[in-house]
Predict the structure.
Amino acid sequence: MQQDVASPPPKNPTSLSRLYARPGFLLRRAHQISAAVFEDACKELGLTPAQFGVLTVLQAHPGMGQSSLARALGFDKVTVLRVLRGLEGRGLVARVPAEDNRRNISVTLTAEGASVLQQAQKPAEKAYKRLLAPLDRNQQDQLLELLQLLTGELEDEARAAFVPPAAPSRQLV
């Protein structure tokens, strides 16, 4: 007795082309490429874009709390904790209870973290230039403007808040 077997759905190249042209697909793919370009440029230092971001924010705001750090980079709490544990394990950051509230965790760069961040500046710039290399200068400016517009206008849709820290106060002498 022969059993009826459903035939596979017809291949529809139109649906794939529509998928591949969707903004979300292209943004995710661009992010994958961006991360790969950055990690390749910083492979000798073993830094990821997320780690570079954390070190950069901490250099500008020593002793920042973990929650504020997460918001400064648009990370959720789990992601910032994972990144910090990796950096702490390498001796690049130190986490201690905050002085004003022992339940909060304050994060600072170690001397080694500051050194790695300094060493990462040229490779990070190289990665940035490599990522934008396919575009002429006007296209580069336009891409950055459009990405800022997109992220700014849709910020309320994000899963994690992005709150850039206030500029460090400057003491007048």
The beta strands are 64-65, 93-97, 105-109. The radius of gyration is 21 Å. The mean pLDDT is 91.
